[in-house]
Amino acid sequence: MRGYLLKRIPSALLVLLLASFLIFAILRLVPGDAAEVLAGPDAGPESVAAIRGQLGLDEPLLAQYASWIGDLVRGDLGPSYAIGGQVADLIGDGLGATAELTLGALFFTVTLGLLFGVLGAASRRRPVRVVVHALTTGALAVPPFVTGVLLVLVFAVGLSVLPSGGRVGLLEAPDLELQYLLLPSLCLALPSAAVLGRYLKDSLERAFAEDYIRTATAAGVPRRRLLWRHALPNALPPVVTLLGMQTGQLLGGAVLVEAIFAWPGLGQLAEQALNRRDYPVVQDLLLLLVAVFVLVQLLTDVVYAALDPRIRWE
Amino acid sequence: MPSSSALPLDPLTRRTALRAAGAGALLLGTGGGLAGCRSAVNAEEGSAGPKRGGTLTIAINQDFTPALLFTQTGQSLQNRLIYNTLIRYDDDLEPQPELATSWEYAPDGKSITLKLRDDVTYHDGRKFTADDVVFAVENLRKPERSAQLAATAKAVTGFEKRGDHELVVKLAHPVSNLFDLFEFMIITDRHSVEDAVKGKKLNGTGPFRFKRWRPGTGLSLARNEKYWKPDRPYLDAVELRVYTQPDALLSALRSGQAQLSYHVSGKHLATLKSSSGFTIKQYDTGNGAVYVGATLDEAPADSKAFRQAIAWAVDRDRVVDQALGGYGLASAAPWPKSSPAYSEANRTHYTHDPGKARELLKSSGVPTSRTLPLGHPTTPLHTAIAEIVQYDLQQIGIKTELQPFDPASFQKKLISGTMPTLWVNGHGFAQVQPATLAVSAYPFNEARNTSHFRSAEYTEAVQDAWRQKDADGAKAHARYQKISDLLLDEAFIIDLAVQDSVQVAAEKLRGPALTKFSYLNLDDAHLV
């Protein structure tokens, strides 16, 4: 197994190296650099040249690339060019904010998904099923930028019970942070909750049609027990698989929701960094994404190899 | 096919449905569930007392950029909160004391003696002295600071200190915009300026101390207990919160989460105007102006008649009404009403007259068959203006193709002089002494500008207006008129409208004010 792992690592490193080169090259092809952004709209060439010199952008491209990779290997992400502060801090803060938002959304996805699924499948009242169906259809059909605006209008502007946007930090003021988190995470979660709810409803309906449920019903097992103890546990495994995929979508969708709710996550950071041509921030962010992808692939390969010895022997 | 009614589960009937609905409501009401704790909405409002105390939250549309601390940008509100300047202009551009208590020009205009306050300390406790002013001027000269008033700072040739609180500033030649420099130049701590441009430590003498800057979230400031103005400021703290999306910024104001903003978009101003709870104040000193630029080394923009035809063709009132939300002044000249160079004749030199524009094109024989590129930044404001310009030019037979550029690409083209034949953008620096526009704003710079316009006459007029001691008076006005005449005649920059700074404040907020360079002054601001 160790030998298999050792064989896979060089190719993973090669992918990372190639990705770093591509990221670096593509960014340099985009018009404008951080020096021109920082110089402002009334700057002369001497200002641009001075700032370029300060940032090291006047060095040959290969030297810039080598310097970036060298710093990365040493674990030093260095300072941001245009946003300000250290890249590691910026990415760390952004990652924390996005993770918090995604976890909040995951909570709502699971809770509302279960609610929709169970009510949709198990209620014998037609109006309840119709309402659930309408809610899930609405949650799927209405895009988050509309849901977000509506939520803000109702809960922040109309009722004034929740903040319209921003973030204070979970460690600094947990009670306030939860209030800031509520609307963006709900907005992000609604489409996923609808998908999950519908999938669970189908899954439960299939479970209810199984013989063992009919037998248990005939044996006099209470109906509530039937649902929670027998049908639901059997319906959940495929739903859990779907939840894994939805989590990835939540992370992607967070970018849009962050903008609506002024949530300072990775999406906002990436947009700001790209607009200002903040090369270190954009480069490190993109490479981080590639690294996560490569790591997941590597782990998947290892798990497959652990499960199927033939792969190890190949 | 399984049916949802395959299993009639009694417990999941109406009662269960109601329970489930209740659970959903509980989730949505988690905010209410946290009501025992503080409210995030109320926390934003702060513990407002009748006069003293409270936290003011300001909604801004772009984050503080430490590296641009010495450059005038679209968001420089924090400069007069953390720092002070030597003087402040009143509404008539008369300098009033700030850190400089008095000043005296030498008769030849080649030096000025400043008397400085002796009771000022930085937030870290260090005393403010003349050395800090010397540093501030020298700092602005550095090209990496990219300060628009660098040309004026470079006219300073030396200093003579007379004790800690008197300073003679020597000049290579008189400059009519010296007080623009003194209003523009924030007095930073010379020992920590490198930390300041990294956003780590902003040490000033202003009414609020720097507490923290969180990129993407904003700046947190706290009251400076040792501020040199007695009993000021009233507010305990100021938060500058970033809302990059116009809708999010509007919601922050409408929900009471923020109480002040200068960045509400034109279309949203109309919404706020009709709703209660806000006061909207216009600063007609201007927030810059919007214009159509022409690249003179590309045909047909090399023809003066062609450029003048464009100046006649554009409906400036429509630009003000539709793009600026009504908060602006249609004007063919760059000057706001408060400028010494302003005149009604200059403002209305070109009006909307498509017939005259067509006639001018016809008589000059300039070919208009080619579709011309019309560049603009991708911001909603500039896109809206570019569309209006495109339509108006089409009415006189000039076909254009819109070329949107993201702000960084646009800025590259602007400062490197590689703009397309025509472009739409905004400029600043007409709100202070007129010479500043021509020596500091790149589109108008006589030595080097985006349009590639060169003229000995223009250079002479600009230098003549700049190298004077007196910024006011009949002679000065004549010199400014000369610049206006050249700008209007040559039309390499075709001004469309002066933009007002628009302040949207909650009704309970009193006393915020902007300086001429859009630094926010909250010395007298309080929540009622």
TrEMBL record, chain A:
Membrane topology value: Multi-pass membrane protein
Molecular function via GO: dipeptide transmembrane transporter activity
GO cellular component: plasma membrane
Keywords recorded for this protein, A-Z: Cell membrane, Membrane, Transmembrane, Transmembrane helix, Transport
Residues that span the membrane, as ranges: 101-122, 134-158, 178-200, 285-307
Record's subcellular location: Cell membrane
One Pfam family, short name: BPD_transp_1_N
Alphabetized InterPro entries for the sequence: BPD_transp_1_N, MetI-like, MetI-like_sf
Domain ABC transmembrane type-1: from-to ranges: 95-300
Family under the similarity heading: Belongs to the binding-protein-dependent transport system permease family.
PANTHER family recorded: DIPEPTIDE TRANSPORT SYSTEM PERMEASE PROTEIN DPPB-RELATED
Protein name: ABC di/oligopeptide transporter inner membrane subunit
Source organism of the structure: Streptomyces flaveus
Automatic annotation (TrEMBL), chain B:
The UniProt record lists the keyword Heme: no
Any single Pfam family the record assigns to this protein: SBP_bac_5
Gene3D superfamilies, alphabetized: Dipeptide-binding Protein, Domain 3, Periplasmic binding protein-like II
Keywords: Signal, Transport
GO biological process, any: peptide transport
PROSITE patterns: TAT (PS51318)
Signal recorded as keyword: yes
Any one GO MF annotation of this record: peptide transmembrane transporter activity
Gene Ontology CC terms: ATP-binding cassette (ABC) transporter complex; periplasmic space
Superkingdom field: Bacteria
Stretches assigned to the Solute-binding protein family domain: 94-425
PANTHER family: OLIGOPEPTIDE-BINDING PROTEIN APPA, PERIPLASMIC BINDING COMPONENT OF ABC TRANSPORTER
Family affiliation: Belongs to the bacterial solute-binding protein 5 family.
Protein name (Swiss-Prot/TrEMBL): ABC transporter substrate-binding protein
